[in-house]
Amino acid sequence: MALYKTKGIVIGSREFGETAKMITFFTSDYGKIKIIAKGAKRMNSKFGGRLELFSFLDILAAKGRNLDILSQCETIETFQKIRDKAESLCLGFYFIRVIDRALVESQKNFDLFKLLVYSLKKTKDGVGEEEVLKYFEVNFLRVEGIFKKGVPPDILIGEHLGVDIRPWKQKI
To answer: CA–CA separation, 143 vs 111, rounded Å?
Structure first.
């Protein structure tokens, strides 16, 4: 199995068998990918709590036939402060839902990756939710090439994603 290394943010996870988890990462080099973390549900897992939503990690994975397998990961940033405050948590969930919905599996988009990291950092640092939200939406539209001055960003993003995103923002 060939190994590869990249940086990624956990944007989702689900159970996979008795002791494993399937983690969805948005990575700088490979876009949105799903990787199996064997033994991640065990109390003494080598991954510990590093595979939580929003975690920004250095990832080492092995290329598998059907699914890649997580070998190691090191924490760059946990974004714990986002989880500690309800408004920040809602904003972080919003960013991840938009990014997850916008990406196709293995579609590399380094500009969106940088936007997500930057937006999460600003949210963690306590910059006002409305300011970070506006920055994220406008720059998301610019990266996707669909920004139109004078049109509300949530309308354009909703059209782009094919879903009404306004309910996603109700608690922000």
So the answer is: 7
| 172 pLDDT above the threshold of 70 | no
* CA distances to 50, 81, 84, 105, 161 from 102, in Å: 25, 26, 27, 10, 6
Rounded CA separation 161/112 (Å): 15
3-class secondary-structure state, position 89: helix
Total Cβ atoms within 10 A of residue 171: 12
Same domain, 91 and 161: yes
Domain boundary among 54, 77, 100: 77
- For 56, the domain range is 3-77
Q: Note whether 40 and 63 are within 8 A (CB).
A: no
On average, the pLDDT of the chain sits at: 92
Contact 9, 56 (CB under 8 A): yes
- pTM of the predicted model over 0.85: yes
Q: Are residues 69 and 107 in the same domain?
A: no
Query: Residue range 71-81: average pLDDT?
Result: 94
Give the total number of structural domains in the chain: 2
Q: Is 171 helix (H, G, I), strand (E, B) or coil?
A: coil
Q: Are residues 159 and 89 in the same domain?
A: yes
Question: DSSP code of 105?
Answer: B
Count the neighbouring beta carbons within 10 Å of the beta carbon of residue 150.
4
Do 90 and 69 sit in the same domain of this protein?
no
